[in-house]
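Reviewers asked in the last cycle whether our approach scales beyond single polypeptides. To address this, we selected a multi-component target totalling 229 residues and predicted its structure end to end. The input consisted of the following lines:
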Amino acid sequence: ETGVTQTPRHLVMGMTNKKSLKCEQHLGHNAMYWYKQSAKKPLELMFVYNFKEQTENNSVPSRFSPECPNSSHLFLHLHTLQPEDSALYLCASSHGDRNQETQYFGPGTRLLVL
Amino acid sequence: AQSVTQPDIHITVSEGASLELRCNYSYGATPYLFWYVQSPGQGLQLLLKYFSGDTLVQGIKGFEAEFKRSQSSFNLRKPSVHWSDAAEYFCAVVLGNSGNTPLVFGKGTRLSVIA
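The resulting structure, written as structure tokens, was:
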């Protein structure tokens, strides 16, 4: 298995709620990623962390706030989301953040914003 | 701009039949190429990857892919499909250098397998 876990697996929230998605990797990797997967669209990279430092922010709205307290854990804090933010949010990890590193994905959190 | 195209949104094949999923990319430089599979309710699992060397690469679950530079393609193949292969398949590309440019995914091809 991938060794990357995500909780919760499903989340329904209102536009005024605040919630957090959690990702944990058990692979000893140093880089972690958040992706958004919407229907009929390619996976969109949101954030990249390498050794707990953010190295990529792909023009993501501020209502999404990532946090990486250590190399094994990654959070995505959500507040005042919009219905169009409903999607599958995937976490991934890799040994490093270089191009040739294989990314290992978690099962995702299915988010519905009402 | 760099892009990855998977021309087929949905493919249906009979169990035991051969399979080919197409992937084309537009990059100016030599890319690193990946194929991932996503089963329902699951994350993406790496099937195979190409960095350099032999242009025919073998992956898990009996899959293989061939890199053709002249056609900018990296098509995924399997000689005999099993019902458990029904899933969504994603081609992904990244610039083949020592940097850390992001992985670019295609929109995916959904594979259905019928008896």
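The longest strand of chain B covers residues 87-95. We regard this as preliminary and will revisit it once experimental data from Aim 1 are available.
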